[in-house]
Write a structure and sequence with these properties.
By secondary structure, the protein is mainly alpha-helical. It contains 10 helices and no strands. Helix 1 (2-22) packs antiparallel against helix 4 (84-115) and helix 4 (84-115) runs parallel beside helix 8. The longest helix has 32 residues, at 84-115. The protein is globular and about 60 Å long. The two termini are 25 Å apart. 36% of the residues are buried. Pathway: Protein modification; protein glycosylation. This is Mannosyltransferase.
């Protein structure tokens, strides 16, 4: 399983690297409600960025917790004097790594579950080859999809929510229910409340 996950992770990371470098910002909400406030807190308000009204203490509609969880590389880069564009790419790289990990874990888990029952019939070697092939195909198809290219490195909550949902499915299939429920809870409480609805099938199960 570790070897299988490593292979699919390399595939996913290689594809997501293109998104890190070439994905454009497709939504003004990503700019003004996430990148600008992140720039503001990473530079402590001294290097630019805006505190939009949703983050203002007068209204308090948004929390900075989400930005800190995924935007801490920008703070470190500003702390050691790296340029702004590199801080931007480092945050995207973190998001791309997280997305690649979730995709690789899900694809290898699905491949293992599919061929688990056929292990005795096909033989250990043939079963291993089939797992690798299916895991490769699943990972490749997920990564080259336009949706993954757009969401894997976006700082909008929908991007990390997709990765967390993939992790939830992986843990569910592995029968690690505590971790699966934890992914749903973290998504709903910290990242994007609307994505918590994806945990309903798990709750029913």
């Amino acid at each position: 399983m570790k070897h299988l996950s490593s292979l699919t992770f390399k595939i996913a990371l290689a594809v997501n690297s293109f998104s890190v470098l070439f994905n454009v910002i497709n939504d003004c909400d990503e700019t003004y409600n996430y990148w600008e406030p992140l720039h503001f807190i990473a530079t402590k308000g001294e290097g630019g960025g805006f505190q939009t009204w949703e983050y203002s203490p007068s209204f308090g509609l948004r929390s900075y917790l989400y930005l800190w969880l995924f935007g801490w590389p920008s703070y470190l880069s500003f702390l050691i004097g790296l340029p702004n564009w590199l801080a931007f790419l480092l945050v995207r790289l973190l998001l791309g790594l997280f997305s690649a990990f979730s995709i690789s874990l899900l694809s290898s888990t699905v491949a293992t579950c599919v061929f688990k029952k056929n292990h005795k019939e096909t033989g250990e070697l043939d079963s291993a080859k089939q797992k690798i092939l299916l895991s490769f195909l699943l990972s490749f198809c997920c990564c080259v999809s336009p949706g993954n290219f757009l969401s894997s490195t976006t700082i909008l909550p929908s991007g990390p929510s997709a990765s967390l949902s993939a992790l939830m499915l992986s843990f569910w299939l592995r029968r690690r229910y505590f971790l699966a429920v934890g992914c749903v809870a973290f998504t709903g409480l910290v990242v994007w409340p609307f994505a918590a609805i994806l945990g309903i099938p798990l709750a029913v199960y």
